[in-house]
Design goal:
4 helices; F420H2_quin_Rdtase; globular; 31% helix; Pnp Oxidase, Chain A; single chain; alpha+beta; Split_barrel_FMN-bd; Deazaflavin-dependent oxidoreductase (Nitroreductase family); oxidoreductase activity; seven-stranded antiparallel beta sheet; 145 residues
């Protein structure tokens, strides 16, 4: 079951999403648009992409959220920043292949999302510790469509 977002998180998500729509990249955040698996309607959420070896990835710090389930159902997504849009396809990355992405993500974004990860898990955690959390915090590679 998806975790309930507290009021401050909802307010922050709305703020970051609004800034992204205006083309203001709040610390590099972008807006992800996915098609709802039940409604068929577009839904957007702020995301923090991370680049690893020239490839762009998304990590789901809050776990098995609606955007994760929707992206698994319909991997065609849109990434927005202001008026710029990129149609992409997401490909889930599993196990040890996700470890370098998780490490870079935590190095870049832990100040904002570290509270959603198990206590003690950081960018300096062992490969085994990072691999152990990938199932709970899915990793997706973005590929331009």
């Amino acid at each position: 079951m998806a975790t309930q977002l507290d009021r401050s998180t909802r307010v922050m998500n709305s703020l970051v999403k609004g800034m992204s729509r205006m083309g203001i990249r709040a610390f590099g955040a972008k807006e992800l648009v996915v098609i709802g698996r039940k409604s068929g309607q577009p839904h957007s959420t702020p995301v923090n992409p991370v680049e690893v070896e020239g490839q762009l990835y998304l990590v789901a710090p809050r776990g098995q959220t609606q955007w994760v389930r929707n992206a698994r159902h319909n991997p065609r997504v849109t990434v927005r920043s202001g008026r710029r849009e990129a149609a992409c396809t997401v490909h889930e990355v599993h196990g040890s292949d996700a470890v370098p992405v998780m490490r870079h993500y935590l190095k870049r974004w832990a100040w904002e999302v570290g509270k959603f990860f198990p206590e003690g898990v950081t960018a300096t955690s062992t490969d085994a510790e990072l691999e152990a959390i990938v199932a709970a915090h899915p990793v997706f590679r973005l590929e331009r469509a």
